[in-house]
């Protein structure tokens, strides 16, 4: 997190931990009811869902964005539907048509070109994009987990148990990073902490509940198509902040989206 002078005020792990902590705290009032709605045998899987869909990706994105532009990170998010298909085939035995396979291949080719578009950047910049790709892989696995394993359980209950289980791990991370030793009463730290917490409440807890509702009503792959819009918003912000964006980036993103479209075309008809 940066201040007005673009100086870092919080460690990337602090930002991720605050985001997850606030998401968990805001869901605490719903915990008693959620525990009644989730069978004891399923609670471990719900906690795993919180780790795969939020905890691990949050840190991967924060690490990645210490080196890469937000526009690239947002564009790579478009790979999520591709990994939904791949993980469904590997872990749940879902058969894929030739069209889906072609779509996956095209999407991965687009990912390669999107990474290659940064060939003028240091190798470290390109390597750190790998953290985002791994994060989208976790997203894909988690979407299938929610779709296949939590039938009959409300989206609110799933998100509540998943996020409240991350409160203690998030506090431990903040302790180890030295967050509580920072001059937290200073304006820059207050703003950074507030922004991270707001992101957790709106961009993590509430948005996840809405997304899980979509997954349960429309299916894993169709729900994951919300990532269609994310790259365009990321690129728009990238232009605003004068990040490194070329026509090759945009062309590569279009290739990814074409792959996603082909992989999901039968669902859309």
Question: Could you please describe the fold and organization of this structure?
Answer:
The protein is built from 13 helices and no strands. The chain has 269 residues and is mainly α. Residues 1-7 have low confidence and may be disordered. It has one domain (12-268). The radius of gyration is 19 Å and the shape is flat.
Model regions low in confidence, pLDDT < 50 over at least 5 residues: 1-7
Specify the biggest β-sheet.
Answer: none
SSE order in H/E notation? HHHHHHHHHHHHH
Instruction: Classify the helix fraction into a percent range.
Output: over 70%
* End-to-end CA span: 43 Å
Number of domains: 1
Instruction: Give me the number of helical elements.
Output: 13
Structural class: mainly alpha
Shape: flat
* SS elements, strand count: 0
Cα-atom Rg, whole angstroms? 19 Å
Mean pLDDT: 85
In terms of DSSP E residues, the strand content is: under 5%
Task: Map the helices and strands.
Layout lengths: L11 H16 L3 H7 L2 H25 L5 H7 L3 H12 L6 H19 L6 H27 L5 H10 L2 H11 L9 H32 L1 H5 L4 H12 L6 H22 L1
Helix pairs in contact: 1-3, 1-8, 1-9, 1-10, 2-8, 3-7, 3-8, 4-12, 5-6, 5-7, 6-13, 8-10
What is the compact description of this entry?
It contains 13 helices and no strands. The protein has 269 residues and is mainly alpha-helical.
């Amino acid at each position: 997190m940066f201040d007005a002078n673009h100086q870092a005020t919080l460690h990337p792990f602090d930002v991720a931990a605050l985001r997850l902590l606030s998401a968990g705290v805001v869901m605490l009032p719903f915990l008693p009811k959620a525990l009644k709605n989730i069978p004891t045998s399923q609670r471990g899987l719900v906690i795993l869902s919180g780790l795969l869909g939020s905890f691990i990706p949050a840190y991967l994105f924060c690490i990645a964005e210490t080196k890469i532009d937000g526009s690239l990170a947002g564009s790579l998010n478009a790979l999520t539907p591709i990994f939904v298909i791949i993980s469904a085939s590997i872990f749940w035995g879902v058969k894929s048509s030739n069209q889906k396979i072609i779509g996956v291949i095209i999407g991965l080719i687009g990912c390669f070109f999107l990474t290659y578009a940064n060939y003028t950047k240091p190798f470290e910049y390109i390597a750190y994009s790998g953290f985002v790709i791994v994060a989208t892989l976790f997203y894909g696995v988690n979407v299938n987990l929610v779709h296949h394993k939590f039938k009959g359980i409300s989206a609110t209950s799933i998100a509540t148990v998943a996020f409240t289980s991350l409160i203690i791990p998030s506090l431990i991370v903040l302790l180890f990073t030295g967050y509580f030793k920072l001059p937290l009463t200073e304006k820059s730290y207050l703003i950074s902490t507030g922004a991270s917490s707001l992101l957790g409440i709106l961009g993590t807890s509430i948005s996840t509940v809405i997304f899980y509702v979509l997954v349960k009503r429309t299916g894993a792959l169709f729900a994951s198509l919300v990532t269609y819009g994310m790259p365009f918003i990321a690129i728009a912000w990238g232009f605003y902040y004068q990040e490194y964006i070329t026509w090759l980036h945009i062309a590569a993103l279009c290739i990814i989206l074409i792959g996603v479209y082909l992989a999901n075309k039968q669902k859309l008809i």
